[in-house]
Amino acid sequence: MDFLALIKLNPSLRKQPPSTKVAPSVSTNLPSHLGHSLVKAALNVGDLRRAQQLFDNIPQPDPTTCYTLISALTIYGFPHEALRLYASLRERKIKPQNTVFLAVAKASGASGDLLRVKEIHDDSIRCGMISDVFLGNALIHAYGKCRCTEGARRVFDDLVVKDVVSWTSMSSCYVNCGLPRQGLAVFREMGRNGVKPNSVTVSSILPACSELKDLKSGRAIHGYAMRHGMMENVYVCSALVSMYARCLSVKPARLVFDLMPHRDVVSWNGLLSAYFTNKEYERGLALFSQMRSKGVQQRLAELSKAIMAKSKDDIKYGTAQARLSEDEAVRVAYVNGTPLEGGMISHSQPVDMFESARNVANNGAPKDSNADNNQSQMQKSHRPEEASSAEFTRDG
């Protein structure tokens, strides 16, 4: 097994910083090939300290060894150690290769240190490596982690060849930094350049449609996802549910939800929020009961916020709220010991309204009568806007 895969399978090793591990004596002036083997062996047993000492005793470490140790430190959760290792290479006048730049670019992004990201970017330009698409993609991602869209765009524009990862990284950088219009603009430009979005692209651009309430673009992307076999991808489907929910289009949100082979918390909460936002409280509580019956680890705060945001004069609101036990209402209002704004649910409504709906609550949540027919409805009546990749280029 590759040592990086072994590290990922043994997360307990990440808890101990490399400086606290005790290493036996290490030979000095190790030949490059032998040093690489010893470094890998140390990493395979999780001994970062020994791996670092071995590395320090290789006069001329090869690029593979440098990449190996820098990547391991980042994966273990010590990106600052990885950056210090890179600094030591520069002090030793060891010229890094593109693989080393790739590893250290990922480390700089994981560190969240914008100054370090800029240093790596500048170094890669001086060494003539910036045209490498893999390095460019890593730098775009690193700038995005630091919420620096200007730096990411500079790298993106300097790339001679852009692959689907380049376009996806740039568009998601804009979206994650609160610039959904710019993200959609990059997405459309991607279509104009004949680059086909993949499932990662689709799931990362749909939040832009959600933020802008751009149902037309969201439906076009939905149609693209259906035609390209992406509807079994949980991230794509969850993003679609959330997009339709944010656009107050509950029926297609439910249709996508019911066709999902696997559902994550995002998809459950997206549909739940849609029901309560549209004052479909009975359906919302039915869905919540379904969540509990399936043992979903709900973020109960989502239900609390959805209920508490509704009109306090709505009798259906009080009826829906009463379906929660008093103990559950407390758990909804207090998540991880932190009270939500507005206080506990049981205190946010008049007691008589809470009690008057108790008999209705004891009968259990009603079944969503439309749920059973949703699969056939999706296939027969629901038609997301059919759009080719080129049609994403249209504005608006």
From TrEMBL:
Source organism superkingdom: Eukaryota
Residue ranges with Basic and acidic residues bias: 382-396
Statement: the UniProt record of this protein carries the keyword Transmembrane: no
Assigned keywords, A-Z: Repeat
InterPro entries: PPR (IPR050421), PPR_rpt (IPR002885), TPR-like_helical_dom_sf (IPR011990)
Region (Disordered), start-end ranges: 358-396
Segments annotated as PPR repeats: 62-96, 163-197, 264-298
GO biological process, one term: RNA metabolic process
PANTHER family: PENTATRICOPEPTIDE REPEAT-CONTAINING PROTEIN, REPEAT-CONTAINING PROTEIN, PUTATIVE-RELATED
Protein's name in the database: Pentatricopeptide repeat-containing protein
Source organism phylogeny: Eukaryota, Viridiplantae, Streptophyta, Embryophyta, Tracheophyta
